Every structure is written in C-alpha cells, then in structure tokens.
C-alpha cells in the first residue's frame, strides 16, 4: 500500500483464514462490497501463529499458507488492510471488552464488523455474537452477521482441504480453494543426480516448517520464472531408487534450462500422477520418468486446448 491506512475507518472481518478458500472468499466479497458502499477500508484481522500452536503447543498442525502467502491471497481478493496479530497466551487472556474496545475500536477504528453467527471471542472464547452486538451499541459500530444459512451453503473447510492434500488429492483441494494450491520456496543445489539420468531437477527449499507439503508422489506443476510460464513435474519424497535421503521437493521443468539457483519461485500444483516407488533399477526409473513426462505433457496440452 502506498499510504498508511491504519487510522482510516474500516469494514473488518476476523479469523485465521488458513487457505483463503472459497468459503472465506464469500466473506471477503461481502467485506469489499460493504466497504465500497460505505466508503470504508476493507480489512482483515488475522492471527499468527495458529492458536492451536500456542494454546495446545500443537506443533503437528500444518497450515495451507505461510503468513506471507496468506497476506498475498487476502490482498488478491480485495482486502486493502491486513492486521496480523501475534497470537500469544497474553492475547488469548484478553477480556472480551478489552479486545473489542482496545483492538477493534481504538486501534483499528472499525465501523462495521462482518462476522459469523457462531463467532466466539475473548478469554476462553466466552463471548459470542450477542455480546458483540451489545458492545457495538455502546462503542458505535455496526455488525453485519453472516447467517447460519449462508455458512451452511459453503461445505468447505480448511480441515477438509488439509485432508485432501495429505491424501494427495490436489484436484479436490484446488476445487475447494478456488485456485491452485501452491508452494513458495527457494531453488537450491541438490545432488545433481537427476542430471545424470537426463531428468535435471530444481530442488525447492521451503523455510517455513509449518507449511503443509502434500503426500509423497509425482505431480504436474506450473511456475512463472522470469516472467515466463513453465510447466513441469514434481517429485515429493526421498528418492528411494537412487538414494534414500531426507524428504525433498524436486521439479523437472519442461523446455527450461536456465540457471535459476537462489531464485524464489511459486510452484502451483495441478494434479497428481502417481505414488513414489522404489524401482528395481535406474533404467526402470528412467523408463517410468519418460512415461510420467508424456502423461504430464498430455495433461498440459489438454489444459491449453
């Protein structure tokens, strides 16, 4: 943003928004539409780390987006101001009144809150939508309630998407998300084994260990590199045929041979081809990779028809 919009009046919605999926997008559309009609700044209050990581010390939960990816998606869907609150135990212990007055009103200058009928907030999540309506009257802001009917029409949840990706069902996850699931990482040097079998790969390093990496296997992917759209096939796994090693993410790009080590890249996942296997020989692996490439290129060509 070119100017600081922090002090401007806002339409605000609140939530973790992991995935920014089609259900979230419906809420964001309501926020942007309301903001336009009332001349307010469309805004989101979101939290990081995930509350489960803090309150339950649950380090097993993997998120659909890194915090930078979440920002990107929220902006893409029309949100001008994104306030990321660091979620701590102290924050969780804020009383409902302090949370509403100090953060929503005084800090964020909220004029309209767009929120689900089942929203809970404050210490121990003890306050509900009715409490928020009482605060709204006292502190002079409006509530735009998302009804049970509206919420029930969207059967998507971040949990369902995580399960689909854990199962390797990228196509289903993409349907729920309304966009292609993507990984953001840096291209780093690997062992260059792929080059010796005519399938050179770019190794993708993802810094954020909480980012959900889908099930091991071979996928069709695309990326934009130096302004050019490039397709490829990606392997997630330990490469058991050549050398069992720690889990890695490697992409073989089609018709692209530039040196791009050190580049940040966004890999969009399109569909899954197969599980990762241990083959009886390097030749058997090469034969399968050739078949994978044919199948992947057929898929890409069908997209462009």
From TrEMBL:
Catalytic activity: riboflavin + ATP = FMN + ADP + H(+); FMN + ATP + H(+) = FAD + diphosphate
Pathway involvement of the protein, from the record: Cofactor biosynthesis; FAD biosynthesis; FAD from FMN: step 1/1; Cofactor biosynthesis; FMN biosynthesis; FMN from riboflavin (ATP route): step 1/1
Riboflavin kinase domain span: 176-301
InterPro entries in the cross-refs: FAD_synthase, Riboflavin_kinase, Riboflavin_kinase_bac, Riboflavin_kinase_bac/euk, Riboflavin_kinase_dom_sf, Rossmann-like_a/b/a_fold
Signal peptide: none
Top EC category: transferase
MF GO annotations: ATP binding; FMN adenylyltransferase activity; riboflavin kinase activity
Keyword Ligase: no
Keyword vocabulary terms for this entry: ATP-binding, FAD, Flavoprotein, FMN, Kinase, Multifunctional enzyme, Nucleotide-binding, Nucleotidyltransferase, Transferase
One family name in Pfam for this protein: FAD_syn
Presence of keyword Cell inner membrane: no
An annotated GO BP: FMN biosynthetic process
Family stated for the protein in its record: Belongs to the ribF family.
Function: Catalyzes the phosphorylation of riboflavin to FMN followed by the adenylation of FMN to FAD.
Protein name: Riboflavin biosynthesis protein
Organism (species): Winogradskyella wandonensis
Source organism phylogeny: Bacteria, Pseudomonadati, Bacteroidota, Flavobacteriia, Flavobacteriales
